[in-house]
Write a structure and sequence with these properties.
170 residues, 75% helix
Amino acid sequence: MISKVMEEALNKQINEEMFSAYLYLSMAAYFEEKGLKGFANWMKVQYQEETFHAMKMYDYLLSRGGSIKLYAIAEPQKEWNSPLEVFKATLEHERHITKCINDLIDIAEKEKDRATFNFLQWYIDEQVEEEANDEEIIHKLELIKDNPNALFMIDRELASRVFNEPTTKE
């Protein structure tokens, strides 16, 4: 049985993950409206990943005898000034999520909940990957500056991303 403290913290993180999905869907809509379908595709895949992250946590919490409490999802930002600004916001958001996961690890340690501590290690690895992906795209966007031809090349590259459900131990 999971402690009430850990249950509440995981429920809050489920909300964080669902907000992340909402944010990336909003970013996808922004890119669709700008005619950047590759960028939109990248964000739609990100939306799918974040939904997967939330549901993985949801299933884990139930498997440990916890109760699910779904909080309202905040309205995400919907306007940005450039693709670079979008990806800088994405990196900032992923760093926030990394902090949230680290805080969950701290709670699991305090609660002596080794099962949840072990479960959360997958999220630690995932966050390293998330931040690295964002940083790579930011670097490319900074290199091209205002070159529309290069922007369309990146758009084409991002169009090839597909969602593959991660393989996990859980």
